[in-house]
UniProtKB/TrEMBL annotation:
Keywords: Repeat, TPR repeat. It comes from the Bacteria. InterPro entries: DUF4037 (IPR025117), TPR-like_helical_dom_sf (IPR011990), TPR_rpt (IPR019734). It comes from Bifidobacterium pseudolongum subsp. globosum. Coiled coil: none annotated. Residues 299-326 are annotated as: Disordered. Residues 299-321 have a biased composition (Low complexity). This is Tetratricopeptide repeats containing protein. SMART domains: TPR. Signal peptide: none annotated. Gene3D superfamilies: Tetratricopeptide repeat domain. Residues 456-558 form the DUF4037 domain.
Length: 661
């Protein structure tokens, strides 16, 4: 994050926004800690605070992400005893969330197994690895990199329990997966980690023979070259490649090279993990032996204490999207801290504890999707202040004037001219009465009650997304957060009614009318079918995962950005659908308008039509599976219209607006 004299430490969570937990922000902060090589002192406080925040917010999927990250950190620190309760808690939480048979369950098993292996609990680790392999067969694609990590880490257990042949087979399978899926194997650091592990295994079982040494050297050199070509020589995992190369040099009698590479590895380990870790101690001991050999000019065949092969990087199911250091939301918060907060303390001390502050509503920065292109309209340093009706009547007008007098330039950003629709009653920042703010977005000052399903059904998801997005920087009174939360708590009967409606549209547009329009040769109508199908499926993913946890599907401009972010989170269902929808959209032009001479080789539309229909069928099959896992259907019928009665049978209310059949 860009540092200012008033900005809080970016690794310190907001104590004021306990009602929500932003898993992406947590991951960005954790990445920043590791990037700054301050994990030894800052990672654990961030992880422990995030556990508390996620639990307080009731975001159990987010909590599982934090627990998986904590497993990896404690493992790297050699804190195996502390890690035991983290492992147990993660597995129990995943089971409680009903994640068996999902990618999140597989990832949690992989991380738990690797942590138990590092702790020396080989029986528990092998059992977890076997479970992970069984789960991966149904949850991960054959080219999924997490599957490579599983084979890579399992090989270490096999090596350490004296099963070298099986260990090598696992590593070779991992390398095959990575090489076949990598966009550039010459710069793929996961391939480098696998090469290092293969080099050490070859060395361990080669009895010092020339052929084994030569093969190990080739593998170690390849790992170092990958880090060099990828410009990743400052990465924490580069220490593993250096230590592996040093051990190969030591075994070959080249003590000079061994000392050089061990020293470089030790410096990186100290910086990234600290000097009081098991990893540092093992490498330091190996360095001492290499130095002794150099002094004696009589290097032994191999170091007596083997360098531990570094596991593949900790796997994260959560999205890997990185926000720019100063995005619109961070800019808003910094601006509030620099100017807004001091202004309230100086001029409105009596009211400050009752004023909520944050950034919520319309605008790409409220969703976290803003970028350089967003700066040409309605952008710049801004925030919102929300007051109760009484306080707004007393100070609202003057507070708005004081807000408008704040500096228009901040951190090199200036407020751009507001478009006509964002002025007056449609303004996106400044001072608002709480009820009027939500009325301006939704038409209601607070969310309808559970006994008003007809009003809920009139609220579209994009409207609800705008009312519940963003962040709250301060709300000691809690009145704004309570109202905002009320819009997140969509009654389950309403959610199920919407699920049923989406199933109907998916069936109508994708399964029934799309093939008919393609057969008729009406490309325009077929294209509209694909559009309706994509809208309905993407909406369904949010509804299936429950808006109280993942938020609502935003309007079309940001729909896929939000869907990608959701699909990257741990514990989510239908995470593979996003990429499949994007593939359908890529093929739509050729499928809908590809004549006999269209496309490479003049194959026409036919191959693309078949592929689109195959993907549509696959998405629908995944939806049926998700409905079954949630207990919403007992039917295996793949035409989704026939699934609707099973879903609507779970609606308790007899309100006519909730029932379509």
């Amino acid at each position: 994050m860009t540092a200012t004299t008033t900005t809080e430490d970016p690794t310190t969570p907001d104590a004021s926004d306990a009602s929500t937990f932003d898993v992406n922000e947590f991951l960005n902060r954790l990445d920043a800690v590791f990037a700054s090589h301050s994990a030894a002192t800052k990672a654990e406080p961030l992880l422990l605070d995030a556990m508390t925040d996620a639990e307080n917010a009731g975001d159990f999927a987010g909590l599982l992400t934090v627990l998986n990250e904590t497993m990896g950190f404690y493992r790297s620190q050699g804190r195996h005893q502390d890690n035991q309760w983290i492992i147990q808690r993660a597995i129990e939480l995943a089971l409680r969330l009903g994640l068996e048979g999902t990618e999140a369950w597989t990832t949690t098993l992989i991380n738990a197994a690797t942590s138990q292996r590092a702790a020396g609990n080989m029986e528990q680790a092998e059992d977890l690895y076997e479970q992970a392999l069984a789960s991966a067969r149904t949850t991960l694609a054959p080219t999924d990199r997490r599957l490579a990590a599983l084979h890579n880490n399992y090989s270490m257990l096999l090596s350490e329990t004296d099963r070298p042949a099986k260990a090598r087979a696992e590593l070779e399978e991992a390398l095959h997966i990575l090489e076949s899926s990598s966009p550039d194997p010459t710069q793929d650091v996961d391939i480098a980690s696998t090469c290092t592990n293969l080099a050490l295994l070859t060395l361990q079982n080669g009895s010092g023979g020339e052929q084994a040494l030569s093969e190990a050297r080739t593998l170690a050199d390849r790992a170092l070259a990958i880090y060099r070509d990828a410009h990743a020589e400052h990465s924490a995992h580069f220490a593993s490649a250096l230590a592996g190369a040093a051990q190969v040099s030591f075994a070959a009698g080249d003590a000079v090279a061994a000392v050089r590479d061990y020293e470089r590895a030790l410096a990186i380990i100290a910086e990234c993990y600290g000097e009081h870790t098991e990893y540092y101690a093992v490498t330091a001991q190996n360095l001492a032996e290499a130095r002794a050999a150099l002094v004696a000019q009589d290097a032994p065949a191999s170091a007596s204490t083997a360098t531990e092969p570094q596991p593949a990087p900790q796997q994260r199911a959560e999205p890997a999207t990185h926000t720019a250091p100063t995005n619109g939301m961070q800019l808003a918060r910094d601006y509030w801290l620099a100017y807004g907060k001091p202004m309230l303390a100086e001029r409105y001390a009596e009211f400050a504890p009752r004023i909520a502050v944050g950034l919520v509503g319309h605008g790409s920065e409220c969703y976290g999707f803003d970028d350089a292109l967003s700066h040409d309209h309605d952008s710049g340093p801004r925030f919102c202040m929300w007051l109760t009706a009484d306080d707004y009547a007393r100070i609202g007008e003057q507070l708005q004037a004081d807000y408008e007098s704040l500096p228009a330039q901040f951190h090199g950003f200036a407020r751009t001219a507001a478009t006509p629709r964002t002025q007056g009653a449609g303004r996106r920042s400044g001072v608002f009465e709480i009820g009027e703010f939500f009325t301006s977005i939704t038409g209601y000052p607070t969310a309808p009650g559970e006994d008003e399903p007809h009003l809920w059904m009139m609220l579209d998801e994009a409207t609800l997304a705008a009312a519940t997005n963003g962040r709250v920087f301060a709300d000691a009174l809690g009145a704004f957060s309570k109202t905002r939360q009320s819009f997140k708590l969509m009654p389950d009967d309403v959610r199920l009614a919407l699920v049923s409606k989406r199933l109907g549209m998916i069936a109508q547009a994708g399964q029934y009318n799309l093939p008919r329009m393609l057969q008729r040769g009406d490309g325009a109508a077929a294209w509209l079918c694909i559009s309706e199908f994509a809208n309905a499926v993407s909406s369904l993913v949010f509804l299936i995962n429950n808006p109280v946890t993942v938020g609502y599907a935003p309007y079309y401009k940001w729909r896929f950005a939000a869907l990608r972010a959701l699909s990257a989170r741990a514990g989510m269902r239908l995470t593979g659908v996003c990429a499949q929808l994007e593939q359908v959209l890529r093929l739509a032009s050729a499928a809908c308008f590809g004549g006999a001479g269209f496309g490479e080789g003049g194959a026409g539309a036919a191959p693309n039509v078949r592929e689109v229909q195959r993907i549509v069928d696959g998405i629908c099959a995944q939806i049926v599976q998700a409905l079954q896992e949630l207990g919403l259907t007992t039917s295996g019928e793949d035409f989704l219209e026939w699934q609707r009665p099973y879903v609507e049978a779970h609606i308790v209310s007899d309100a006519a607006c909730l029932h379509s059949l």
